Amino acid sequence: MAVTLADVARAVGMSASTVSRALSGTEKVNDATREKIRRVAQEMGYEPNQVARSLTSGRSDLIGLIVPDIANPFFPPIIKAVQSRASTKGKTVLISDVDEHPADEIQRARVMRKRVDGLIVVSPRTPVESLPELAALQPIVFVNRKVDGAASVIIEASEGILEAVEHLASLGHKRICYLNGPRRSWSNSQRQAAMRAACADLNLELVEFGPFEPQIQAGVRAADLVHSRDITAVIAYDDMIAMGLMARLTERGLRVGPDISVIGIDDSPMSGMAYPTLTSIHVPGTRAGATAVDLVLDLVDHPDDAPKPVVQLETRLIIRGSTAPAPTP
User: Which residue range or ranges hold the HTH lacI-type domain (predicted)?
Assistant: First the structure.
């Protein structure tokens, strides 16, 4: 016989309604009680009847998550954080990868919204003029893009980029290059603006190349452009481009660090495994994913509340082996 909610309630000596609230992740049950109920339910092998719960509550206990490219190292930490946080709330995550096709985002979101209680859209590539159509699929939370009238988790690039430019200036670099990301990327527009402001404040010359796709091969192509100019330091749109850049510069006979400094953005796991290890701007993807889950579930519980919250998360520089004092002329 399958273990029922009533069986769990008898085992813990509490009412069925309290057990139901605890297992559904509601904030109306204190943490100690919730953990006790979940532990006993797990030990007894209790499995909630999702169909019955959906019919009773009108909810699916599903969260939809849409990402541009699941293979990009920027997104897995966010995905894992969303899944982990959702699990603690008794929710399941459905993931859709649009494979960097902006035209697919709204259609995928429409289909998914029919099955889930709320949506999280990470780094949407949808053109700005079409964003209101996407934002109308409430409850919805955007990560890494600010959308008017919608809840957002913004990863603020300016502080980390300022730290990176100051770091390079302190090492004696005077001419810095920024390798732009995709033209459609909201993150790139923010990072580009932060680069220009930081270099202007520190009286440094800024050279820009791109746009480039967030791929290692893009960094390989960018390296030949960098090599053709009198540049001693490069900040790339992301770690993927930075690592492709380092590989090609090494092939061209340059020593990354002593001859040219390279900084990436994202602080992906690969940055610590590169040779030399990659100095990178840490992006709090794990915090962003967990925060997005909290926001979307709050919107599910309070759909008519306004205004929609916007949470800002800061970035910071992680110094490793790919930056060094500027070479002497």
Answer: 3-57
User: Three-state SS for 272?
Assistant: helix
Long-range contacts, 35-40 (Cβ 8 Å, 24+): 36/12, 37/8, 37/12, 40/8, 40/11, 40/12
Please state, in angstroms and rounded to a whole number, the distance separating the CA atoms of residues 25 and 162: 40
Q: Tell me the pLDDT tens digit for each residue of 205-252.
A: 999 998 999 999 999 999 999 999 989 999 999 999 999 999 999 999
Q: Is 97 left (phi over 0), alpha (psi -120 to 50) or beta?
A: beta
Count the Cβ atoms, other than its own, within 10 Å of residue 283. 27
DSSP annotation of 328: P
What is the pLDDT, as a whole number, of residue 282? 96
- HSE-CB for 55 with a 13 A CA cutoff: 4
Beta strands in the chain (DSSP E): 62-67, 92-97, 118-122, 140-143, 151-156, 175-179, 205-209, 233-236, 261-266, 279-282, 310-314, 316-318
* Phi, psi (deg, nearest 5) at residue 118: -165, 160
How far is residue 204's CA from residue 312's CA, in Å, rounded to a whole number? 28
Cα separation of 154 and 143, whole Å? 6
Q: Highest mean pLDDT: which of 38-42, 47-51, 229-233, 305-309?
A: 229-233
Helix (H, G, I), strand (E, B) or coil at 153: strand
Task: Report which residue type is found at 234.
Answer: V
Q: Pairing between strand 279-282 and 316-318?
A: antiparallel
